[in-house]
Design a protein that fits this description.
The protein is mainly alpha-helical. The protein has helices spanning 16-39, 43-55, 60-67, 71-84, 105-126, 131-153, 159-163, and strands spanning 5-7, 13-15, 87-91, 99-103. Strand 1 (5-7) and strand 2 form a beta hairpin. Helix 2 (43-55) packs across helix 4 (71-84) and helix 3 (60-67) packs across helix 4 (71-84). The longest helix is centred in the first third of the chain and has 24 residues, at 16-39.
Length: 165
């Protein structure tokens, strides 16, 4: 076994890159929890804020769908975020029966002020590698994303189907 591979507790070989990727995923969760505490929101509310900052204003149904929750649940999420001043409801410009959930500029700015230094620092890391190495790193990450996307897009069996819990 080469020195960049390790053995997991179950005995299978795991490459150091896989171990580091797992560490990145764990640290990302910790960063998100820290942001949740700073914004005084729970994980679902934070995820809703992230979706709105990534995609821009959304109607409640698409927001609910992107979060994997019901429209009734997204109404509760939006109510909390409005109360905290993180989002506001605006009339939809083309559908007078609908509304848009809009991220509050001050919350978006505060989030970006916290994230941009870290994003810039991570972006700068790739410039330390030559173009061929950058291509290899990007290829590895792209294929890792594909694996994770397949996992989250595969329907999971209900608890009762797994063994009667």
């Amino acid at each position: 076994m080469n020195e960049t591979a390790t053995r997991s507790h179950s005995g299978e070989s795991r490459h150091e890159a896989s171990r580091l990727m797992r560490r990145i995923l764990v640290l990302n969760q910790k960063v998100e929890k820290q942001f949740g505490r700073e914004f005084e929101v729970n994980s679902t509310d934070l995820e809703a804020m992230q979706r709105l900052m990534e995609r821009g204003p959304l109607s409640p149904s698409p927001l609910a769908q992107s979060l994997g929750i019901s429209t009734a649940a997204v109404t509760v999420v939006v109510d909390r975020l409005v109360k905290m001043g993180h989002v506001c409801r605006r009339p939809h410009p083309t559908d007078r029966r609908s509304i848009l959930i809009v991220p509050a500029p001050q919350s978006a700015r505060r989030a970006m002020d916290g994230l941009l230094p870290m994003i810039r620092e991570i972006d700068a890391l790739i410039s330390r590698y030559d173009p061929e190495q950058q291509e290899a790193i990007t290829g590895y990450l792209a294929r890792t994303v594909e694996v994770l996307e397949r996992k989250v897009s595969t329907p999971q069996p209900a608890q009762s189907e797994k063994g009667g819990e």
